[in-house]
Automatic annotation (TrEMBL):
It is a multi-pass membrane protein. The keyword Nucleotide-binding does not apply. The lineage of its organism: Bacteria, Bacillati, Actinomycetota, Actinomycetes, Pseudonocardiales. Its main location: membrane. This is Cation diffusion facilitator family transporter.
Length: 324
């Protein structure tokens, strides 16, 4: 887990340094050329820089050990700070891009100057963003391959928002640079600032979509998403195979943080077992789950009768399948 955290930190730090440098270049070029698309891209890079700072805070805060006030640790702080990062992308980037776009289209006409500076800055920014994107893409592909999933499946189920956030924002940055280049070029060729304004609005839409995807992801993780389905099946299979257990009546899992899973299992033990046998079985099974399913950090096993009507109704309402 420390290796994965180290790579996430490298990905975030690299992206933050790149975005800060690019933001300064875009802002200067935007002022010189008078391009709204370039200024929108500068706001985009500022939003991305703020995002990296929030992600670094998330990585640091979420690694704090459990204590009396937070016995399950601080893992979910990573999701909170990552949610703020999504809000930052929308508030600092998308809204400014929308404002800049509509001001360019409906405000006073202006003539774009020194377009060559804009082209040069966008080209250099594309190279720098590509370096950051390559690091994020490398991490995402490696972790997806380790889980034997496609990149899209990995991004959907990942419990670490840092690489997903950097990957999506860097992808959006590359697309945004292309949009800004097209807006400046069309403005230069036609003499109409409408194209520059439309490019700014398109950048705003792009950032709003990315912010929505990241916000929705972190909201689900904060609310309490179940663990990876593959891990859940592994936990169920291990419990069902235990000689002391007749039926796994109910199984609930929740992500406590990145690589931290809470398992709550209600099982019907063999009625021939004594209390001491059940206690030893619970301790052994909890140890096996922690060793076999590496992300499982907390295990609670509750002995219950499979015929309890209230429990059967609760499981049926949650999953739609009756307990057998």
């Amino acid at each position: 887990m420390s290796k994965e955290k180290g790579e996430s930190t490298l990905t975030v730090v690299l992206a933050g340094a790149v975005n800060l440098a690019i933001a300064i270049m875009k802002a200067i070029a935007g002022i010189i050329t008078g391009s709204g698309a370039l200024l929108s891209e500068a706001a985009h890079s500022v939003a991305d820089t703020i995002t990296e700072l929030l992600l670094l805070t998330a990585l640091r805060r979420s690694s704090k050990p459990p204590d009396r006030v937070h016995p399950f640790g601080y893992g979910k702080e990573r999701y909170f700070w990552s949610l703020l990062a999504a809000v930052s992308i929308f508030a600092s980037g998308a809204l400014f891009a929308f404002y800049q776009g509509f001001s360019t289209i409906f405000g006073e006409e202006h003539e774009q100057t020194s377009s060559i500076i804009g082209y040069a800055v966008l080209g250099l920014a594309f190279v720098l963003e590509a370096i950051s994107w390559t690091q994020a893409h490398r991490q995402v592909r490696r972790e997806a391959a380790e889980q034997k999933r496609s990149v899209l499946e990995y991004l959907k189920l990942v419990d670490d928002p840092a690489p997903k956030t950097v990957f999506l924002e860097d992808s959006a940055a590359l697309v945004g640079l292309v949009l800004a280049f097209a807006g400046i070029a069309l403005d230069h060729l036609t003499g109409s600032a409408v194209w520059d304004g439309l490019a700014s609005i398109a950048i705003g839409v792009l950032l709003a979509v990315v912010a929505y995807i990241l916000g929705r992801t972190n909201l689900r993780l904060l609310v309490g998403r179940q663990a990876d389905p593959v891990l859940v099946r592994g936990v169920r299979d291990l419990l069902a195979a235990a000689p002391e257990i007749e039926v796994v009546v109910d199984l609930q899992t929740m992500l406590l943080g990145t690589d931290q899973v809470l398992v709550c299992a209600r099982v019907d033990f063999d009625d021939a077992l004594g209390a001491a046998d059940v206690e030893r079985a619970c301790v052994r099974l909890a140890d096996e789950l922690s060793r076999t399913c590496g992300d499982v950090t907390e295990v609670f096993i509750e002995p219950v009768p499979r015929t309890d009507p209230a429990l059967r109704a609760a499981v049926l309402a949650r999953y739609g399948n009756p307990v057998t």
